[in-house]
Amino acid sequence: MSEAMSSETTIPRAAARPPRKSPGASLSRDHLQLEGLFCALLDAFREGDWGGVRAMWRSFEDALEAHFSTEERHLLPRYAAVAPAATRQLLHEHDSFRQALWALGVGVDLHMVNLVLAQSFIGALREHALFEDRSVYPWADLKSVA
Asked: For residue 146, what is the DSSP state?
């Protein structure tokens, strides 16, 4: 994550694993589901299964946008009060991911996906998710904001 995120005041982490229905646990499950979809997509790209790629891409794109929208509507406005620089960085990353989604989506439509770009995209998403899982979501569980 960026320097802004690592240099901010430490956000309290939950002492124990959050309850299954907690906001953080729910959003973390989204990350796992998105990871699974993207891994299946990469396999379909490698195999040249463009019908499967197109269908999975739409599901992935819709799920990722829904996840971002939930965070932006319910979580990040309150998180900004305790970690403004980190929140700005997360929102910037959401915008960057949306731009990358568009570029990759064009590749899907043209059957010309750059596998290196796709792998880089998932790497960045993993880093983003890890930051949220370790700091934002535990804070959300303590505050019950989502």
From this structure: -
**Could you tell me the fold of the domain covering 21-143?**
Four Helix Bundle (Hemerythrin (Met), subunit A) (1.20.120)
Q: What is the pLDDT of residues 35-93, one digit of tens each?
A: 999 899 888 888 888 888 999 999 999 999 999 999 999 999 999 999 999 999 999 99
Cβ–Cβ < 8 Å for 118, 53:
no
pTM of the model: 0.82
CA dist 75 and 117 (Å) reads 29
Amino acid identity, residue 92? H
What is the number of other CB atoms lying within 10 angstroms of the CB of residue 33?
A: 15
H or E element, residue 75: none
Residue with tokens 């019950």: 144
